[in-house]
Amino acid sequence: MASGVGEQAHGSVASQFYSNEEETAVDMTTSEKVVDLLNQAALISTEEKLIVLKQVQELIINKDPSLLDNFLDEIIAFQTDKSIEVRKFVIGFIEEACKRDSELLLRLIANLNMLMRDESVNVVKKAILTLTQLYKVALQVSLSVSDMQEACWDMMTQIKEDVLALLDSDNDGVRTHAIKFTESLIITLSPRTPDSDTPKKQEGDISLDKIPKDHTYIRYDTLCEEGKLALEQLLKFMVHPAISSINLTTALGSLATLARQRPMFMSEVVQAYETLHANLPPTLAKSQVSSVRKNLKLHLVSVLKHPSSVDFQGQISTLLLDLGMSQSEITRCTPATVQPRKRLHHEPYVEGKRIKMEASLVEDDEDKEEPAPVVTTKPSSSVGTQSAIDLTAEFLLPLLTPDNVANLVLISMVYLPEVMPASFQATYTPVESAGTDAQIKHLARLMATQMTGAGLGPGLELCKARDEEVKEEYGGAGESSSKDPLIIRKLSAVSLGQAISVVGAPAAYKSPITEEAPQIKKFPEPILPTTQPKAPGASGRKKVFKLADVVQPFSEAQIEKLTNMAIKRILQSEKVIAQSGMSHVRVKLLARLVTQFEGGKKNDLLQFILEDMRGRSELAFSLLYHEYNEYLSQQPPSSLDSYEHCLYTLLSGLQEKPEQRDGLFTKLVLEAPVITDSALEVIQRYCEDESRVYLGMSTLKELILKRPSRQYQYLNVLLNLSSHEKEKVRSTALSFIKRMYEKEHLKDCIEKFALTYMQFLVHPNPPSLLFGAGEDTEVAAPWTEETVRQCLYLYLSLLPLNHRLVHELAAVYTEAIADIKRSVLRVIEQPIRGMGMSSPDLLLLVENCPKGAETLVTRCLHILTDKVPPSPELVERVRDLYHKRVPDVRFLIPVINGLEKNEVIQALPKLIKLNPIVVKEVFNRLLGTQHSNTCLFSCASTNLCFGEKNVYTSEVLAVVMQQLMEQTPLPILLMRTVIQSLTMYPRLAGFVMNVLARLILKQVWKYPKVWEGFVKCCQRTKPQSYNVLLQLPPPQLASVFERCPEMREPLLQHVHSFTPHQQAHIPVSIMAVLEANSRKPEPEPQPELHHPEIIEEREVCCNETEAWTDLLFCFAMYIRV
Amino acid sequence: MPAHPLRVAVVCSSNQNRSMEAHNILSKRGFDVRSFGTGTHVKLPGPAPDKPNIFDFKTTYEQMYNDLVRKDKELYTQNGILHMLDRNKRIKTRPERFQSCKEQFDLVITCEERVYDQVLEDLNSREQESLQPVHVINVDIQDNHEEATLGAFLICELCQCIQHTDDMENEMDELLQEFEEKSHRPFLHTVCFY
């Protein structure tokens, strides 16, 4: 944990807590407070939880550490918390706790180990950071506390190995943290020397030099070896060709830290810098190269500033010059004291080094008695690593003749990449001193570096040979564990002169046996071998080639069998994987695998998906996308077959499944990258299925609207369905098309289709297109009602939306044969009614009435006026048509009640000559207007008809009255007819009384106008009407007296004339009305005052309307007679 | 996405124009942001290119403002310096020097290569302790008002993208590559440790 941040956090949390304390719980003990806080923490949100837990940490670590032990378990329990931040807190707590009381590590190490394996990388990273700190604590504790269990240390060692292994992690950040851990580990596991540049805060940190040689289980030499191994791993990691820029940057920094804090590694560090500079990873982008070079420069300068860099100043300044630093700047950064020595090694690399090495060896001898003997390893190791390169360079130098160099250049031309790598571009500086001795030497050295890196060259072989010797000696020395290992090192250094270092040679020529031998003998830990195989396999470039040599390719059959088995296993592991929450990986894996193979596996997988399409839809989609991807990645893009097959199989599978209510089909169609023709067929089949027609067409609609590139193709499918033989399919399709017809861009296409279909009607026979695809139909089949309708469905449903289309119909109609005409007339009712008589296009049609379309126009007129009276416009058009173009009286029938009286009278003779059925219709139309509210034909006058007494006998009138009375609602002219009849035939009075009595049963007072007539009639027919009046309910009777007060007295008299027995039958309420002289019963608020006026008015306007009613009666009578 | 908001530092030379513009935008977008300069002094344009106004980092924006008003109100109104100072004093009291700040950040964004170098040098010269990583990214921005505004938006977009990564450290490399392509400018990027 960041101790800086940590302290800040503590400060703020503490203050927060203490203020709380003052407010709330003054007398609580710290322990109680902790309990309280922990109880809270269990229940609250993550953010609050963190605050509370930090308070607890403050309390038990800083305020009262005696509590730490008590509450440790409670806090650690949060390590399984769902929140990453809480788990990170636990790690931080462990760190703080162990720093406070290092013995706690004994208990907490296992938890740390668990957290190291957390699923969240952020937790893992935090754990690595903490381990970086705690490794030192563990080592310290193991030394100082005698009863520290060995197991704990073993575990720490194990964890350390695990962290080192994370250098190979997939996660960049984890690797970065692992590098920093490695850096710290190397520093801990190597001795501090007087020239170590140790940060102040780490002054007290433990390092190898503080480890006693006689500890029971902490073995000095083991640790030393582990440190060296770690360095080796770090160096190996750095030369990985695909290292990320951040990892590389981190590693560069770590090396600089190592060089300054452990100058004994200066040689390896400089060597690694050199190698890196010459071999920047090819994967780096241009800006990354600049970043890395900037870092390299920075770190080289910081290394250069260290006094121990003296032996490497030559190399470092060459590198810095290459990196674009000026000589003066370099000089400024070089430690002043060693300036004279620098020049010595600068110029002649190889020889200079030798001399210097000998010099340092002499120094080493002098240092022997000094307490820090490790210094000796520094020169010796540098001797070791450099010598291999030096030897090879020396070997190369005489070979670099102009001829050889020219040949080398020519040969290597072949291997040049096509594009200049960013790293080369950045590092390239023109050779100024070509051909000079110094430049040739420089070249030789550069080549030697590369060759050594690649494991080639005589220098390397020589070193290897010497390494063997070292091993033998070292092995011999290793027998006695008490022996100071440094002596061995020195021995080897001395005896080899410039041989390889044991401390940490570059990976290339390091023999693992050197370390292994003694380790296996003395310390058979199970942990160490795990790193062994990792170390060579980790990241070396050579290894790739070796692997290819070793591995034998499988035979085709074997591959086939193995893949089949593997896929099968993945398929079958559905549930298990789902439980582990990794099903997305499985899905991806399956899809990717299967798309790479042909044939059988694909079908197997498809079948597998279809077995439970709902549960495996994710797999289905994944597979589909992969197939499409595969298609896209083909160069040049070839066939969609494989994708099509996949989509087709899935869709048909869904289509054939009986129960499939969820929108999987829709989803599949809409999310498929491309809808192929065969898929479209399946969609069509789906739409034709009556139980799914709606879903199918909704899907189709979505396709049309959302896939504009092929929308016409999709639209066509829908349009074809609009004439489908199944009613449900057809009507659904029509309703969808109607909705789509509103879209401007689809309008034309739909219209064209509808008109094309309608045009079929002019053909002598229906086109085979109209019959289902598979049906074998003779081409010469005659038109049937059904086929005619098929051609018209779409058109007719569009008609109300676009009235203009009506003219097309007229055009087709005139050309069509009679059978078709009849069918057309039958089917147009709905749409024409939908258009309404105000439609300008319909009016235009009536006006123009193309020749041959008269019947059509008449039909239209009838449909339009069937339920409503004709509009003046329509009447006008028809009149024009009738007078100017087609004098056919039948045109007039539909608009007859819109015509002037004289017109009607003129037409009447012609009309009456028509077929009686037609005449009846005319009558119905005229009567129909009586029911409407628009006319005032309520005051009937039947003078015209009634004058013809010979026709209208009393019998006829009685029948008419009877019929009128049976209508509901009561016709307004009823009473007028009754009164007129009565006037003509007074002997009908008895019949009329019956009528009146019947009208009371029909509650005649509910029809104000009829009621008015009723009262009038009663008035005229008194005294016969008295008995009728007495049948009225009291309020109505009162209403009668309202209108005719003079009736009351006679009626009362009439009642008084009854026998007492008869009188007893008169209800008291009626009597009350009759006798109510003073207290007038209040009738319902009828606008009685207006009645006279209204009646007046009607009398006035009767002149006009009378004609109508007369006419009506003419017809009525005519028909009945 | 990291659970806590990114702790961001924006650094330019004088903590006046580029870093403040970015500071302004980033804080409006909810970032935990601070801004700094790396220079030894705060320099503002003066009456001539060779006569800059030089202040130390202790001077508040307010004082600078008043000083410039006193010197030549019209000139400094015209070149936008007063406006800038006015904006700055609303954000914080005075410029801050990066090298004097011990707070830890997740992300340090510098506005020119020289500043980037100075930040790196400073961070590397500190004693490592917690080993908490800090990513340093350089976005080259010319030191004028327009470029500062454009640059600030670029920085803001960058920060938002980084904030939204699931695993910042793992995705940073790729993200920056994408940004380089998109904005057609190279970003220097490195990681340091506290």
TrEMBL record, chain A:
A GO CC term? mRNA cleavage and polyadenylation specificity factor complex
Tell me the compartments it is located in: Nucleus
Name of the protein described by the UniProt record: Symplekin-like
Tell me which positions the record assigns to the signal sequence: none
Q: Region entry Disordered: which residue ranges?
A: 362-383
Which keywords has UniProt assigned to this entry? Answer: mRNA processing, Nucleus
Residues of the Symplekin C-terminal domain: 888-932, 940-1044
Query: Could you tell me which SUPFAM superfamilies the record lists for this protein?
Result: ARM repeat
Q: Which residues form the Symplekin/Pta1 N-terminal domain?
A: 121-334
Instruction: State the Pfam families in the record.
Output: SYMPK_PTA1_N, Symplekin_C
Coiled coil spans: none
According to its UniProt entry, one GO biological process term is: mRNA processing
- Which organism is this entry from? Sinocyclocheilus anshuiensis
Organism classification: Eukaryota, Metazoa, Chordata, Craniata, Vertebrata
UniProtKB/TrEMBL annotation, chain B:
Could you give a GO molecular-function term held by this entry?
A: RNA polymerase II CTD heptapeptide repeat phosphatase activity
Choose any GO biological process term that the UniProt entry carries and state it. Answer: mRNA 3'-end processing
What Pfam family is a match for this entry? Ssu72
The EC designation for this entry is: 3.1.3.16
Record key words, sorted:
Hydrolase, mRNA processing, Nucleus, Protein phosphatase
Q: What family does this chain come from, according to its entry?
A: Belongs to the SSU72 phosphatase family.
- This protein is called what? RNA polymerase II subunit A C-terminal domain phosphatase SSU72
Which organism was this protein described from?
Sinocyclocheilus anshuiensis
